[in-house]
Structure formats: C-alpha cells, structure tokens
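MODEL INPUT / OUTPUT PAIR
PAIR INDEX: 1
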Amino acid sequence: MVDAFVAGAAGNTGRPLVEEVHRSGASVRAMVHRPDDEVPGDPEKVVADFDDVDSVRTALRGVRRAYLVTPSSERAEQQQRNFVDAAREAGVERLVLLSQLGARVDSPVRFLRYHAAVEEHVRKSGIEFTFLRPNLYFQGLFAVAATLVEQGVLPAPIGDAAVSAVDVHDIAAVAAAA
C-alpha cells in the first residue's frame, strides 16, 4: 500500500509536498506528465495524464491518500472529476484537493465555479476529504516583483481589495498533515 499519492509532483505545490511526505518517512508515489520531469527525493514516480483516465486509474492502484491539483485550463473541472472517480474506484481513503479561495457555484469567475463543482463532486464521492483554498502564492509575486518595488502596487484587477498570500511550502505542510 502506498501512503501518499501526489498529482502534479513536479509543480508549485506538488514538489514541496513530495519533500514533506518524504521527510515524514511515508511512502510516496509521484505523478508526473513526462518521464524526465524531476521530483525531489526518491519517490516512486509514475507517468500519467489527466486526459487519459486509464493512466490515472493505474497510477492510483494501491494508494491510501491522494493529493489532487491539475493545471488550470478549460479541461480542469472534468480532469478533476475523472480523478475523483478513479480514486473512489481505487479505494483511496482520503483526498486532499487544492481548490481556491472564494470557490462558489454562483461565482462570476469561471475557475471559482469549477473549483466549487469539483468540491461538491468530492463530497458526493464518499471519500474523506480536505479542501485547501489558498488565494495567491508568495512565489507568484516574483513575476511582478519589479512593479511592486517600483510602483508599490500589485498589478491586478482588484481595486483596493485586501490580498492574502501563502507560501507553497506551507500548503505542502498542511497537505501532508491531512
């Protein structure tokens, strides 16, 4: 039995999660999209594609707990629903889902609606779950660092709204605990 499965193991939150699980001594299976994708430590690495449900089913065999994150795209909702179904079929006991702050089915923002729809699908699946709902990664601020320093503003269409940010390593620590 594999203790932890990490989808997106070479990504922003997956990489530090693999490190966190590895440090805990638990066994980890790291899902990547390409065989040459690098992941930290020495996890069992499996190549799977969210658009190939059979590859996801195979990757999830023998897994107790799984972490789910997909790239943000127009296919993300269906990819995540398919993953949840495959996890249920594989007997996964707990699913940790990287969702989004403000996820609501009635949101005017498409990706917040799909996060809410996936959360509801997870609730109905019967799998124990934890939803993580960060807003902005501190690491994402590097892309706009020059503007922040030079102009003292975050270039985003948010008016004077407050912004919350979290380090991806903190997300990984919470995901590992869950």
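PAIR INDEX: 2
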Amino acid sequence: MRRGIEALPSPNIWQWPELYELENQAQDVGGDVWRMLSSVADWAARDVVDIGCGAGFHLPRFAATARHVTGVEPHAPLVKLAQNRVAGMPTVEAVLGSAQHLPLPDASVDVAHARTAYFFGPGCEPGLAEADRVLRPGGVLAIVDLDVRHRPYGDWMRGDLPKYDADEVDRFFTRMGFSRQNVETRWRFTDRRSLESVLRIEFSARVADRAVREVPGLEFPVGYRVLTRRKPMGLIVR
C-alpha cells in the first residue's frame, strides 16, 4: 500500500462488499439526495473526486455528465472492485488513496464528494485541508452523511453510538464554514432477506434485532445531511 495512506477499517463494506452493494442499491430510491446534491454542487462538465468511493457504486452516476471522475479509496480490494466497475469508461478512474492524502494535483477538481465516509465531525480537519488543496477556486466540497435525528434509522444509530453528540457535530461543521441541507429519502429492498442482512452489517446484533422488528415491510425512511463548503475564488493554498 502506498506510503501515507491512512484509514480506519470500515465495519461494513470492507467485510461485506456484496451486502453493501445491496445496501447501495436500496438507498435513496426516489433520488432525493441526488437532486439536492446536484442543486448545491453541480458536476456537469466538471472534474469530480469521490472520496472513499468504496467499490465505485456512485462513479458511473457522476460520469454520466461530468468531464472526469476520480474515485479514491484506501482499501485495495475495494479499489479493484471499483476499477472493474468502471472498466471501459474513459472518463473515470479508481485509485488507491485516502481523504488525508488524495493522489491528485493541487487545484485539479471542481467537486469533491464524500458519502458516509471519513468526514464525520471533529477529527476530520486533515481531510478538509486536503480537499481544499485539490479543489479549484470556486469548487465545492460536498459531504453526505446520515442524520441521527431522523427516525427510525437515527434511533438505531444512537443505539450503537450513545456518546454521539449531534449538536457538537453541527457546531463543528458550522465553524468550518459549511451550509447544511436536510433530506428525507427512503431505502427500499427487493426482499426481506436482503433488508435484514443489510441491517445486520450496519448495527450490533442487539440493535439490528430491534430494527428488524420495527420494519414490517421492505422499506423505511432515512434522513441525510448534505453539507457543502465552496472554496473562495482566489484562495491560494500553500
């Protein structure tokens, strides 16, 4: 692995990439997050980096209208899966790297996107600085994260993260200059087995059992926070 790559193992996609693929397919079935994202960080005919791209699920969506897309992922087996996914797509690449050490030149992208990856609040300052380095003046860093205040998914998250302070996280991103948009969407699965399997890679056994009981069908609402910060025009990063 390339020197400088730093990452905490992801407890879901690193261990169960096949199940996480089902999760990605179930998420945001109405496209609400994508519509919000495109309204605050339009990537059409622009250069994009997807930070923590995993197996590359979102890369083709960006590539449909972007000029060029780079997926950056710290876990080598996932990089390989992402490369296989975008093979034959000339405007997309997937490379090994981390949020703290993006393998990109200064001022080389217009949109930096991270979805439920690395940027979770205090402690992510190195990644914020690195995103500023690779963004062109006027470029946007867009962070999509789950909203722990939104029920029922947020209740399940807090069941496993009792010390998580949503107010502290909000204050942090406000201090860092981010705007926030809340989005409600739905996760919808094709069968009950897939739904239950996904819940069991996201939560402890105790919380997963609770979630399975509380979802009678194949779908449930999920809240997201879309956080954006635009790099000032003319800002020089040394």
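PAIR 2 NOTE: The chain has a mean pLDDT of 95.
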